[in-house]
Amino acid sequence: MKSLTTLATAALMLLSAGTVSAQSANAPAENNENAFHPYWSLQVQGGIGHTVGETKFGDLISPAASLSFSYQASKLFGIRAGVSGWQAKGAVVMPDGKYKFNYLQGNVDATLDLGNLFGGYKPRRVVNPYLFVGVGVNGAFNNDEAVRISERTDLPFEYLWTDNKVSVAGRAGIGANFRVSDRVAINAEVNSNILTDKFNSKKAENVDWQSNLLVGLTIRLGKSQKPQPVPVEEELPTPQPQEEQPVAPVQEVETQPAVETAPAEVVEEKQETTDVFFTINSSYIRPAEMQKVNALISHMKENPECRVLLTGYADKATGTPEVNMRISRERAQAVRKALQKAGIAPERIVVAFKGDTEQPFEVISENRVCICLLEAK
């Protein structure tokens, strides 16, 4: 019980440290380089286990495996549920005194992302360590070898069980995911499970420990975030050159004195731009920027023949290409919704978004923008 209390205390201290740092790591998206989205993952692991006993370490090594599903609810904290087990071993002090039995254990763990805790959120971090604590229900079975040893010797098995043994387990461990791609990581994990003293059929006046060294794969589930295709701006048709017409023969005519007239006024097509700026990782139109949108709306209502091209951008210094493509699209759509809500017809609005593939301004923060190009006469 003392060992269990010590392990639980250490785990609570580490989780408390994570809670203190959660405010900065899980700050609003405006203050972080990348946006976090909760996700599910599948973990498949295999390796070796070891049950503490009265013989050489190598004599008590056995195969182990685990299958679990995880839900990463925030940048720091997640929850994992699954099943682990396979084989455990025990030994008594006598020739040929080793025996093995099987077990399966259902687990529920709380996980803490150590990489995000100490290094900030980085979705493409190569090595991402984590800590976990949890509880399990252990069902041990197939203890025939221990039963046979007890029957043919005088050695006592004070806690010998025959059919099966069910017990509650406390568990903790540490692991790391080594990124291979956006969906797949190689996983390595060490964990220890604290079980009742009756787990290995022997009385030792303390808890039994079952530890595992596991390697495997962590596979991220769900729809992956793909960069959205950049819409092509609508282009007005290019005027085609007219075929040359035959020139009529010049006829001599009586010339009249020229009448001096004022030159005709040349009407040029004008293009005006309005830059609607946003904060980092946001598509919310702030009140100061909304005044620009309202001015654009007023102009379009006064000039019903004009159209507007809305192009969203994101700054290249923050975020991933996928996230930046998404946020640039949301910025252009936010301005479009404001225009349509004010009564501007959808056919007068063209939307494009370019993520961080283009940076129209030299100042980094100014590239968090939707540029509104007004085509009017």
Task: Tell me about this structure.
The protein is of the alpha+beta class. It has two domains: about 200 residues, Porin (Beta Barrel); about 110 residues, OmpA-like domain (60s Ribosomal Protein L30, Chain: A, 2-Layer Sandwich), CATH 3.30.1330. Helix content is about 20%, strand content about 35%. It is built from five helices and twelve strands. The strands form two sheets. An eight-stranded antiparallel barrel has the order 1-2-3-4-5-6-7-8. The chain has a four-stranded mixed β-sheet with strand order 9-12-10-11. It is rod-shaped and about 105 Å long.
Please give the count of helices. 5
Instruction: Name the helicity range.
Output: 10-25%
What is the straight-line distance between the termini? Answer: 84 Å
Helix/sheet category: alpha+beta
Low-confidence parts? 1-33, 225-269
CATH level-3 fold name of the largest domain? Porin
Give the total of beta strands.
Answer: 12
Strand order of the largest sheet: 1-2-3-4-5-6-7-8
In angstroms, what is the radius of gyration?
A: 35 Å
Q: Can you give the mean pLDDT?
A: 81
Largest sheet: 8 strands, antiparallel, barrel
The ordered string of helix (H) and strand (E) elements is HEEEEHEHEEEEHEHEE
- Shape annotation: rod-shaped
